[in-house]
Design goal:
By secondary structure, the protein is of the alpha+beta class. The protein folds into two domains: about 110 residues, 2-Layer Sandwich (Phosphorylase Kinase, domain 1); about 220 residues, Aminoglycoside 3'-phosphotransferase, Chain: A, domain 2. Helix content is about 45%, strand content about 15%. It has twelve helices and ten strands. It has a five-stranded antiparallel sheet with strand order 1-2-3-5-4. A three-stranded antiparallel sheet has the order 6-8-9, with helices on one face. A two-stranded antiparallel sheet has the order 7-10. The radius of gyration is 21 Å and the shape is globular. The chain starts with 15 loop residues before the first helix and ends with a helix. The model has no long low-confidence stretch (mean pLDDT about 90).
Length: about 375
């Protein structure tokens, strides 16, 4: 990560010369040069805050690799929201800090860079102070935060491995219990690796789950009319009852959930961010990574993927058994199930502010409708 490098902000600025220099610096290339590139946009209606492209380079000599790679840059329509969330910086820092030492499969980092920012590197302290302000100051504080985020001109770029010979998950289609069980087992490996580890502390980019609870709860209240207009039938069929509960108890539910063990959370664990190669599960998109209660990842995933309305208790048992096999003890199955129930309500609080991002009228809107329907099923079965 540098401060004086030219960082491309658009696909057009990603020149062969720039790529050759970046890949030579990181050791991906040693001798060959990139002479041309072609690009294919990926993830239309899936990546809400980022643009994703598959880049195919042409080299000046045979045998050079990689044959393709993935480019991730901010999405201009949602750039302010991505900056407010710290999404671009987090993913870069995740790959640079932990990407080469994981018990799960994730794309290899080829190159990452972004502009440093003093405010961002003190963000936990700033957010904790902001989260304590009186409720009547929340609207102007949120307005100011968005204005500051929108005004920042920070540049970000991430070049990572293109996953081959693997099938992408499809959140609209959902998943059966067998596939969900595999994700539970692999997620347990990730959580066990970072379970109550000191290395999660003092990482400026790795925010604790509860750091902005009051602000998020306030955003939920403000977003409810829009949320109800987007998903009227789901709200009418029962989701409105759970919204009422979270409107009243959401802050206490978050704090109670965060009293338990802490680990590294993917925080956007859903089928669109997973690839499958036989029994292998490959995790992508680490823009929302945080540290916090393991049950949040489970509730987030199962509420977005599981297609039936039965209890997810058996899948929680599979996760717990895998966690135990990784050497994690002292966290009972009963505690996990209780945390999972709390986490479902926290997921609802998270998703209720969907009005803050532009999901478009195509796949994104269909995806969110399916998610709300499945979240209601999970709440009715386990909440």
């Amino acid at each position: 990560m540098t401060t004086d490098r030219v960082i491309p902000e658009t696909l057009e600025a990603l020149t062969p010369e720039w790529l050759t220099s970046a890949f030579t610096e990181t050791g991906i290339l040693s001798g060959p040069k990139i002479t041309a590139t072609s690009a294919q946009q990926l993830g239309e209606g899936e990546g809400f805050v980022g643009e994703i492209f598959r880049i195919t380079p042409t080299y000046d000599s045979d045998g050079a690799q990689p044959h393709t790679f993935i480019l991730k840059i901010p999405k201009l329509a949602n750039r302010a929201m991505g900056e407010l969330l710290g999404a671009y910086e987090r993913e870069n820092m995740f790959y640079m800090t932990f990407g080469r030492d994981l018990p799960i499969q994730t794309p290899t980092l080829y190159f990452g860079d972004f502009d440093r920012d003093v405010g961002s590197e003190n963000q936990e302290k700033i957010i904790r102070q902001a989260d304590k302000i009186p409720k009547f100051l929340n609207p102007p504080m949120m307005w100011l935060s968005r204005k500051i985020a929108a005004g920042k001109k920070r540049r970000y770029i991430l070049l990572i491995e293109d996953i081959k010979n693997a099938a992408p998950g499809d959140q609209i289609a959902g998943a059966d219990r067998n596939r969900c069980a595999r994700v539970m087992q692999e997620t347990a490996k990730l959580h066990a690796r970072f379970w109550e580890r000191e290395e999660l502390q003092n990482q400026f980019w790795l925010m604790p789950m509860d750091v902005d609870t009051r602000m998020r709860h306030h955003m939920m209240k403000g977003a409810r009319p829009t949320f109800e207009s987007l998903f009227p039938e789901t709200v009418k069929n029962g989701l409105g009852t759970y919204l009422d509960r979270v409107m009243t108890d959401g802050i206490e539910q978050m704090y109670k959930l965060c009293e338990g063990p802490t680990t590294l959370l993917h925080c956007d664990l859903r089928l669109d961010n997973l690839f499958f190669r036989g029994e292998e599960v490959i995790f992508i998109d680490w823009q929302l990574v945080r540290r916090g209660p393991p049950a949040y990842d489970l509730a987030y995933f199962l509420s977005s993927a599981l297609n039936d309305g039965d209890s997810a208790g058996d899948l929680l048992e599979i996760y717990h058994a895998a966690l135990t096999s990784e050497g994690i003890n002292g966290y009972s199955l009963a505690d996990l199930k209780a945390d999972y129930t709390l986490a479902l309500h926290v997921v609802l609080m998270t998703l209720s502010t969907v009005d803050q991002v532009d999901v478009g009228d195509g796949r994104g809107s269909v995806l969110l409708q399916r998610w709300m329907d499945r979240l209601l099923q999970r709440l009715q079965a386990d909440g």
